[in-house]
Design a protein that fits this description.
- This protein is an alpha+beta fold.
- It has one domain (about 1-365).
- Helices cover about 45% and strands about 15% of the residues.
- The strands form three sheets. It has a six-stranded mixed sheet. The chain has a two-stranded parallel sheet with strand order 3-7.
- A hairpin with a 4-residue loop joins β4 (about 150) and β5 (about 155).
- It is elongated, with a radius of gyration of 33 Å.
């Protein structure tokens, strides 16, 4: 029989076509894979670029916020400079009369802006950076020294007047915290402790305090051109940074002023406040008579006379100038990013100009 011979040419052509098909599919797959890789690289690069931009903005905003501390130092440093010069200067009586009083200088530089935010805008052409710094100075000695009003060994307040004042304060606090009376919880917290409070935020271990001060822990200063309803902040009521069991009447915090039903600093326009302070300081003199000081000076600042002050408050008010501990709220804005810090600083007394005049005792990024 005749056998059909295989058509090798036809088979070869079919194999070639099949091979070309595989190659085309492989090329298309490789092209697709390459496109995926390129797209992913582009996507990752774009994300990284955006992240780098945000990261750089954040770091620059942090540096601006830290520079806010330096601005606060410069405002508080003036009195130190005058104090040193006044102490070292041995001149005639006429020359001494011309020497600025360090206490008055200090009060002039701090009181008009106390508890208020000041904005400094930076320009590229002048400051080599475009950004904004907001700085607010408050005084720790104008708050309740939580460790000094309570005797942790005897498990009771240092005296009946102080206990009465704290009760009044917590009674006034009720209107800000949904009518809750937190005094008993506060007293229980202190009684159960075996050591002093390290930070006012430890009060937030109490559930009711956590609910009452949610979102209102660190002081939020009101800009000097703004007005809003009174607000209170935990760290603006209590402090652990004071070496005296007293409240300095010249430097009462905004939150404590709200609880005592005093005028807050932002309720008076800055220029009007400057005029009031300037007028007060014309006749200023250190006095051991708190009633006299209050009715001649502080009444104009807080809007209340001495007779209407809460019971017990007058027992823990002491006029100590200049104070030693301050709190600084500083925020820096660069581009679309803002970073904010809250710092506790200590002012040191030193005649040596090389010495460090300020030290940061605690710093929080908020």
């Amino acid at each position: 029989m005749w056998k059909n011979k295989p058509n090798n040419k036809k088979i070869t052509e079919e194999n070639a076509i099949t091979s070309h098909g595989y190659i085309m599919i492989a090329v298309l797959l490789l092209l697709s894979l390459a496109m995926i890789i390129v797209t992913q690289i582009y996507r990752n690069g774009r994300i990284q670029t955006q992240f780098d931009k945000i990261f750089i903005q954040r770091e620059k905003a942090k540096l601006l916020a830290l520079n806010g501390l330096a601005l606060a130092y410069s405002q508080l440093y003036v009195s130190q400079q005058f104090e040193t010069n006044a102490a070292e200067k041995k001149a005639s009586d006429d020359q001494k009369k011309d020497t600025p009083d360090p206490i008055i200088t200090f009060l002039e530089n701090v009181l008009p802006y106390l508890n208020q935010s000041r904005t400094i805008k930076l320009k590229k052409e002048f400051d080599n950076i475009e950004g904004t710094i907001d700085v607010c100075i408050s005084c720790e000695e104008g708050k309740i020294p939580i460790n000094l009003i309570y005797n942790f060994e005897n498990k009771k307040f240092i005296n009946a007047e102080t206990e009465q004042f704290i009760k009044t304060l917590f009674s006034n606090l009720k209107q800000f915290v949904s009518d809750k009376d937190l005094f008993n919880l506060f007293e229980k917290f202190l009684k159960e402790r075996q050591y002093k409070v390290n930070d006012p935020t430890e009060l937030l271990t109490i559930q009711e305090f956590q609910e009452a001060f949610r979102g209102n822990i660190f002081y939020e200063p009101t800009h000097i051109t703004m007005k809003k309803k009174k607000s209170i902040y935990l760290m603006d009521i209590f402090t652990v940074w004071s070496n005296k069991a007293y409240i300095n009447p010249w430097f009462i915090s905004n939150s404590l002023a709200a609880l005592l039903q005093f005028k807050q600093s932002h309720e008076l326009p800055i220029n009007d406040r400057k005029k009031v302070i300037s007028e007060i300081l014309k006749t200023f003199k250190k006095s051991t008579n708190l009633k006299e000081t209050w009715n001649t000076s502080l009444k104009k600042v807080y809007g209340k006379d001495f007779q209407s002050l809460p019971k017990g408050l007058t027992q823990i008010l002491r006029e100590i100038i200049p104070p030693r501990f301050f709190s600084i709220v500083s925020s820096g804005t660069f581009g679309d990013t803002t970073q904010k810090l809250y710092a506790i600083i200590e002012k040191h007394e030193s005649k040596n100009e090389i010495a460090t005049l300020f030290s940061v005792k605690r710093l929080y990024w908020i």
